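Entry 0007
Protein: Achromobactin biosynthetic and transport gene lysA
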Amino acid sequence: MTELPVRVVAAIAQARQQQDDPLAMFIYDLAALQQHIRQVMEALPDGAELYYAIKANSEPQILQTLAPWVDGFEISSGGEIERLQAAGSDKPFVFSGPGKLDSDLRAALRRQAAAIHVESLNEIDRLQRLAREQGRVQTVLIRINPQLPAQISSRLAMAGTATPFGIDEADLAVAVHRVDNADHLVLQGFHVHAMSHQQSEQRHRQLMEYYLQRWPQWKALSAQQEGITHLNVGGGIGVDYLSTSQFDWPGFCHWLGELLAVTAGAPRLRFEPGRFISAFCGYYAIEILDQKTSHGKHFLVCRGGTHQFRLPVAQGHDHPIIHLPQRSDGAGELCAWTVVGQLCTPKDVLSRDCSLKGVAIGDMLVLPLAGAYGYNISHADFLCHPRPCQLFLPLETASWA
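Output (structure tokens):
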């Protein structure tokens, strides 16, 4: 991305006029988010559904924009249950993740979770006890940590190796038997979230084929197979932060539709992406405070930093930068700049050796693709800098948070 939407540029200009200090802010284009989720949902084939993983960005405005389009939401804590309820959504939700507290599970039971993904034998026993206490029969999916073919991989493996997530496939028969014999639990299916940051459509195809091959064996472990209908295949679809090429979701969905159509006894597939849904609507805008050269390297010191936008460090990349001249005309020599923030640590780096022309103190730099795993995973209170404002640009008017 080399150009900014006009409405984002206008929002930055307005924000600069409204405060005296140099600017650091997040802007979320909700109209763009709505357009994106509409296209994602329209591409889904028959036999598939999509729940948004709110861990990627759980701001109420984001959830409210997505709610009319998605089939439901995926949450991973009691706090996320509260966040979803506060957004006013009546869409179903599923509860995933390790280390669930009894209080979290009680909240999920009270809120009538569409499914709870059990991650261990102990969690099955705890959920059975808590469901019995509340007099509720709870639908569950067993999260599997399967054996995966070596060629199926991604930057961040969530299964197929030693992880705290799910139940090893070798222990699956025991887990299924335990749920079958729990009078307040009903097994609806299985959950496998094998990888994150997956940018290869071909590898994701291989992953789906593998799941569907294993499905009959997993289902056959239960004595109550008629109720086992769903396979949650997780999210994990990556975003390419360094180029304009992105995961071919329409092409993948077209292929998947053809596969499901010829697969006898296929389950209903449930996707739960987060990053791929909300990343594209967000922008992080920071003002240049200082320029300096040290040991032959050129630095732009900016308002904000990784305490507000941790994504580049967490993702391990140099984030793309768009130069928005404010007090200069953008003319001048091209130079390789390292963009840093205000923190007292050499790790506060947003982008290294970024080629920019004619930058000046007071200019703005804008980091696109900032709508997921940016501010919400950041250590915002480090050094007690003020938190950045967040501006939400909906279809007609803007709202601040």
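Curator remark: The longest strand covers residues 282-294. The mean pLDDT is 91.
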